[in-house]
Amino acid sequence: MLPHVQCVVGHVLCSQCRDKLASARICHVCRAPMEGGYRRSHAMEKLVESIRAPCPNAPYGCAAKPAYHDLQPHIQTCLHAPCHCPEEACGFIGSTETLLVHFTAEHGWPCTTDVRAEESFHMELREGFNVIDLDADRKLLFLVMVSPERLGRAISAVCVRPPRADGDEPVFYGLELEFDRPSRWHGDRQKSCFDVECTDLSDGLPNADDRFQFLVPHLIVLPYDDDPINIRACIYTQIR
C-alpha cells in the first residue's frame, strides 16, 4: 500500500494526489500553511488497511479476504479462480472439482481416475473429449482430445487449472503416449512425449495447430471404427 498524507489540520491526500501536489505549501482544502509540506497519516493508513474485501472466487473455495487495495492483485493470481467448460455453447464455469462432475455427468465424457504422476496407466480414448483426474484430488485435470484427421486420429492434450500465483515455482507437465499392435513378426509401435499447456479455458481451447498432435494411423484404427483407442500413457511433472 502506498502512503497517505495529511495537512496540519488533518485533511488527507492519497499518494497519487500527493505526487501531483508535491510542491504545495498550503492545504488544498483549508488553505492552511504547511511549512514542510504534507505529513504522513498513519491513522488513515491503518484505516485503509483494515478495509477487507472477500475474494469473488469465494463460491469456488477461496477464503481469502485481502485488504481492499490488494484485491485486484489477489484476483489475478487466485488459485481458486474458476475454469471453463470447452464445449461449444456451454457456459459452465466452476472449480476443477465441480468441472470434473460437469464433464462426466453433463457431457458424459469418459474419465480416467487413479492416475499418479510419473506412473504409466492405461486409457481407452474415444473421439472427442477424454478426462484424466490426476492424483484423484479433482484439482488438476487433463483433457485429452481425439479428432479425425486425413491419415488417422489426432490426439492432443491440455491441463485445466487456474493461473499460477506469483512467487510459485513454475510447474511444467508432459504427457507420454504409446500404442502397439503385436503381429507375427515385429508388430507396430509408436511412442511420443510432449509438453502439455496449462489453461483455465477462459479463452476456449488453445489453437489445435499450436498443440502437439499424436497421430494414430488408420492402420491401427479404421475410419469407421467406433471402438476406443487403447493406449498407454504417463504424465510427467517438472519444476523449472
TrEMBL record:
Molecular function via GO: ubiquitin protein ligase activity; zinc ion binding
Keywords for this protein: Metal-binding, Zinc, Zinc-finger
Stored InterPro entries: E3_ubiquitin-ligase_SINA, Znf_RING/FYVE/PHD, Znf_SIAH
Organism of derivation: Aegilops tauschii subsp. strangulata
GO cellular component terms given for this protein: cytoplasm
Domain of life: Eukaryota
UniProt GO BP: protein ubiquitination
Gene3D superfamilies named among the record's database cross-references: Zinc/RING finger domain, C3HC4 (zinc finger)
Record-annotated SIAH-type domain positions: 50-108
Listed name of the protein: SIAH-type domain-containing protein
One Pfam family cited in the UniProt record for this chain: Sina_ZnF
